[in-house]
Design goal:
Structural class of chain B: alpha+beta
Order of helices and strands of chain A: EHEEEEEH
Shape of chain B: globular
Order of helices and strands of chain B: HEEHEHEHEHHEE
Oligomer: heterodimer
Distance between the termini of chain A: 11 Å
Largest sheet of chain B: 3 strands, antiparallel
Shape of chain A: globular
Largest sheet of chain A: 5 strands, mixed, barrel
Number of strands of chain B: 7
Strand content of chain A: 25-35%
Radius of gyration of chain B: 20 Å
């Protein structure tokens, strides 16, 4: 993560977080807060439905307020752990409003902002992570 | 109103929209902001990314067009083979901002405001009161003032020496 340019983090889908492609990197995951779930050792995680409908279990800091159904963007580190153990360590949460179009955002991430895609040069530095 | 907008926007981890001029200082890009406001909803973020791609691609394409200086109206004749239809087509392609670029909007009031501001001194800008005096027989004063306010909120114009004067960004 120390090599990641400051403020530059890829916008990803839930599948990409679970794939391990961005382990140890900061990523932006947009979706909807769903529930508080318990992990195998009793730890609590926030179940977060990403834009591709994948549920990602996130560890959250105390200043992130959980509200079921809230659309938000989470900036966090892909931990490299399994989803049951919390695949994403969330640091920052930004609310996106109640009328956010998640499916449109999913199209944006997969067709426009995808690393290696046609428009990559507009959004990522040359030595992009992932 | 401006103070309230700034206060809302000046919160850590808040998405904001900044309107300003891009400058380079000491090899680093900087924005001299005229105004900024909090993003109204998450969809504005999606729109911004799409708008970025559109603007960049349009800019690239316009740079690749050879031979036509800005501010010149060009009549282009396309022959039947090029256009692939039975009729020849004649196209007038204005380039540059002469006569209004339409960036402000397609309605007459927006175009008149744009033309008026283009004729004013960039530093002082044009006066809303003066515009009302000039065009008050065509548009209501309320419509004029609301349009100026809308254009300022959208970042198309900014206030200069006082609240009555605006210039084009």
């Amino acid at each position: 993560m120390s090599d990641q340019p400051d403020g530059c983090y890829p916008r990803v889908t839930g599948e990409q977080v679970l794939s391990g492609q961005f382990n140890e990197s900061l990523v932006s995951l947009v979706g909807q807060m769903k529930d508080i779930v318990e992990g195998p050792d009793g730890a609590e995680f926030m179940a977060f439905e990403a834009c591709d409908k994948t549920i990602i279990n996130c560890t959250i800091s105390p200043d992130i307020a959980f509200e079921s159904g809230k659309f938000c963007e989470i900036i966090g580190a892909a931990s490299g752990r399994s989803n049951e153990e919390g695949a994403l360590d969330a640091f920052v949460c930004r609310e996106l409003g109640s009328d956010f179009d998640l499916s449109l955002y999913h199209d944006l991430v997969t067709k426009v902002l995808n690393i290696g895609g046609k428009f990559e040069k507009y959004f990522y530095p040359k030595d992009v992570m992932g | 109103e401006t103070a309230r907008m700034r206060e809302e926007a000046a919160v850590e981890n808040t998405y904001v929209r900044i309107f300003g001029k891009l400058n380079s200082y000491d090899g680093k890009a900087q924005i001299v902001a005229h105004c900024f406001r909090k993003v109204s909803c998450g969809n504005e973020l999606t729109h911004h990314f799409l708008e970025t791609v559109h603007a960049a691609e349009t800019h690239q394409r316009s740079n690749s067009i050879v031979g036509t200086p800005s501010g010149v109206n060009t009549n282009l004749n396309f022959n039947n083979e090029v256009m692939g239809n039975g009729n020849g087509m004649q196209t007038s392609t204005p380039i540059g901002n002469g006569g209004g670029s339409g960036n402000f909007g397609s309605d007459n009031l927006s175009r008149d405001i744009e033309k008026y501001l283009q004729d004013q001194d960039q530093e002082q800008g044009g006066s809303v009161n003066e515009f009302v005096g000039m065009f008050g027989n065509q548009y209501s004063e309320q419509d004029i003032r609301q349009k100026f306010e809308y254009l300022a909120t959208e970042g198309m114009i900014y206030s200069t020496i006082d609240d009555d004067r605006y210039s084009i960004i």
